[in-house]
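Q: Could you fold this chain for me?
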Amino acid sequence: MLLLHVLSPFGSRQTALLWIGLLFWLATGSACRSTPAASDPPERLPNIVLIYVDDLGYGDISAYGAQPGLTPHLDRLADQGMRFTDAHCAAATCTPSRYALLTGSYAFRNDASILPGDAPLIIDPAQPTLPSMLQEAGYATAVVGKWHLGLGRGHVDWNASVRPGPQDIGFDYSFLIPATGDRVPTVYLENDLVVNLDPEDPISVSYREPIEGVVTGRAHPEQLRMPADDQHSETIVNGISRIGYMKGGEAALWTDEDFPFLLTEKATSFIQQHQDQPFFLYFSYHDIHVPRLPHPDFQGKSGMGPRGDAIVQVDWMSGQIMTQLDSLGLAENTLIIFTSDNGPVLNDGYEDEAVEQLGDHHPAGPFRGGKYSAYEAGTRVPTLVAWPGHVQPGVSDALLSQVDLFASLAELLPADSSRETGPDSEPRLAAWLGKAATGRQQMIEESYTLSLREGDWKYIRPVKRNRPTWLKDKNIEGGFLAIPQLYDLSQDPGEQNNLAVRYPERVAAMEASLQRIEAAETSE
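A: Sure. Below is the predicted structure, expressed as structure tokens.
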């Protein structure tokens, strides 16, 4: 009666009853519509943050056996997600691994090797890439940090727009160390322009001939903060001699110690700006690559010298990303992948006491070799994957390769999205999320030669050309022998017992498989 009294101004009792019926219909209709219809928009796609560390070995963080407390933020990530024991980058060096990661194609198909700082872009803008696929699906995409995949088409004019580059292969935004910290040009590139460049002080770069007036570490070692080998004894910037010759651009030169704070600020700003849409952040750290110059906030924190302090710096940067996601309420819908581009190296051009202050730390864990090597430590890297509600905490022994991230992440997209991926990329999302106990059946490990994994069996192809002499100075076992090598990793994870003579049939079969994979190039 109260409702009728309230409605009485609108007319008669009959009119009021009509209003009551209308309100009842609206209420029940609304309740019925509370269950989503088939035409309702799908749940928002997950954000993807790929943290790609440089030269981080299998045993370099606490979750993989390093000293307790060295990497507390990464320990938390490991506790929240899946820790993989047999996950690999595609190659034992940086450029090939990054190429395979972004293209889903083994680097040997494009003769991709470690690039000089003025190399042209080695990814064809016409080919599908991981970022272009995600971009087409509606993701905001960014790369922040080390690039080392080449820029431009030939001789780069660093005083103008540098294209093609990340924007031409699927990244909406980029803030780059163009090559590596030990190579010129030692400037940042935001999108396609050098940051803080003074037009009155243009940049010149050469990797072939010295540039007149450039002060080098070779000529002036007294100006260096740490000694360097001959390869790294050219242009001096920030008291460190680099590879290559560079002149000009004084206002644009970086300070190495600023890397962790500046790069992290760019990464967190991107997350902040794109929190209302799905985003893909490829956060490519410079650490723990040489030259190792951690910020004063981290110096002396590890007790292992600059290399160990750079690992602490890596942990802090990762923690900042995790904190940002938490503070914005994005953590529940964000897939984080933390991994490395190749295995560890101690001496890599500079005398920074990485060996002398190592103590009982084992960068490669239980494995043989390291960066550059055909042995397991060359490509078996720490890999953590977290996504609340989708990845259950645990440990997985699945055989994984980063070349598969392209096709695996494609499985997250709606069915009508582009699914064109690279020729070598396999859809293994279930394994990456810890939902499948097995991953690849066969996997290539690329170094100065090619190796093949089939389950726990590992075959290393003989090397017929001259072995690299520069590897001797790095004190790493390359595994580049003139004879075939075969190891049963289930019994011999340290690859000490070559079984090739005992199992010639298996050697022949694995070599034949390797040749079939190589020949697949002609069918693409």
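A (continued): Confidence is low (pLDDT under 50) at residues 1-42.
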